[in-house]
Amino acid sequence: MAEGNRTEVFVYEQVVILISCALSFLGSLLIIITYIIWADLRTTPRKLLVFMSVADLLSAISYSFGVWKIFDEDSLDCIVQGAISTFANTSSFFWTVAIAIYLYIFIVRSSQRVADSLVLYFHLVSWGVPLGITVAALCLHKIGYDASEVSVGWCWVSIKAEDHVLWMLLTGKIWELLAYVMLPVLYLLIKHHIHRAHAALSEYRPILASSPMSNSVTSMADRKLTLIPIIFIFLRIWSTVRFILMLVDSPARQNPVLVTLHGVGNTFQGAANCIMFVLCTQPVRVRLANFLCCRGQARARGAESQRNDGPDTPSHAEDNGTHRWLDKD
């Protein structure tokens, strides 16, 4: 490909995408930390979310390096960055679908035993397949500089490879397209099952059905089941659009707005997960707020004690041990 066809990445695009990478890094880290420090919130779906967050964390780091450097040729650091982002990004696709499959079997099929038995297979597929594809691409020298044709400064599949379209499909696009189909179908089936179950419960237990708390929890779960596939598709669709435009050799793939949306969409997944599953999940949000408030109060008491030259008398925080927080959406 001639150098003149290279997609230019402007400074403002770099800044926006680097901010997105930072937010995704922090969001993924927060998901992992909250899982570690609060044992009673360690449900299996949240454990799967942690594994996906590890992949999103790697993606954010590798993409930020590529966006910051803006590669313009094949080099060792370009290949390393491209390999890490290829592995992490593909793994994130698999973990996203794995969570949907787990919830479908657990909720619709009402079989926690079967759902839990799949976790080992989720690991084998979600780590093993991306690793195998990435190693094969490395061994065959398919990863390298791609002139930002379907990236935003970072390296992916070398544009010089004659079969680069095939390897773009294998290292990401085919799994992305499958996720576009599988996620809406699985979450629609889950939503339909929940609505039927809630309708049957309402018929026989009208008091519970009219409870504000019951309606609130059901409404929040319904919104999340709707938003998960919508947010995934909204974030990822821009890279798919640029891939299609590249296939038809359209100059529209270099449009700065489209390039920026592609960069943010590819790097914001960790932040989006944090918003949905930490900030918008009441048990985790309340725990996090209490933790931050307690730390702030402890620092304030310590400062006051030093000013008064007196002993720091600890106050007894409210005992939350009697509340068994469930990871409800």
From TrEMBL:
Main location: membrane
GO biological process, one term: cell surface receptor signaling pathway
Localization annotation: Membrane
Pfam families noted in UniProt: 7tm_2
Ranges of residues in domain G-protein coupled receptors family 1 profile: 27-277
Molecular function GO terms recorded: cAMP binding; G protein-coupled receptor activity
Segments forming domain G-protein coupled receptors family 2 profile: 13-281
Parts of the chain that traverse the membrane: 15-37, 49-71, 83-106, 118-145, 165-190, 225-248
PROSITE patterns given in the database record: G_PROTEIN_RECEP_F1_2 (PS50262), G_PROTEIN_RECEP_F2_4 (PS50261)
Highest taxon above the source species: Eukaryota
Region ranges (Disordered): 302-329
A GO cellular-component term linked to this record: plasma membrane
Membrane topology: Multi-pass membrane protein
Keyword Membrane: yes
Keyword Membrane included in the entry's annotation: yes
Keyword tags: Membrane, Receptor, Transmembrane, Transmembrane helix
Gene3D superfamilies per record: Rhodopsin 7-helix transmembrane proteins (1.20.1070.10)
Name of this chain's protein: G-protein coupled receptor 157
UniProt organism field: Clupea harengus
Upper taxonomic lineage: Eukaryota, Metazoa, Chordata, Craniata, Vertebrata
